[in-house]
Amino acid sequence: MVRAALAQKRNIGQGPLPGARFVPAISVIFASLLTALPIVSTSGWYPDFGFLVLISWRLLRADAWPAWWAAPLGFFNDLMTGHPLGFSVALWTASMLVLDLVDRRTMWRGYWLEWALATLLLFGNETAEWRIAQIMGASLPFATIIPPLLIAALAFPVFAWLAARLDRWRLGR
Fold it and tell me: Topology with regard to the membrane (predicted)?
């Protein structure tokens, strides 16, 4: 055991990367840019990747997210996804406030509880997108939100893992 401890290469004084506090926001921006990929679909089967990454980061590290970051990141997502301006701003800010409330009310959170919480927030996001589309004149049945919701809920562990790997990289661990 002592040999293993001595054999480890330790970089004393190695801390976070320069600009490490911006890595979560940059990853959300890149996830929002995924909607610019040339994917042709008659129905929106893909989830809001920016929101999925935002939730993954926020559930992983609450301290890395100032609450006001939701507004500019949501505005950028609105510009990229074609939502009405202010939709993601309001929804992402409300989600951050809900997650702050959950942080204050729960003593501990496990993997399954985080997955359930993320699924509830993703359901709220998809339902709000469906309702806004209805208000704007689209006649979509409620069942159209099921494919993106299932994909997002099943992809959440992958995005949470990616956020954790990015977090280890940015903190130099």
Answer: Multi-pass membrane protein
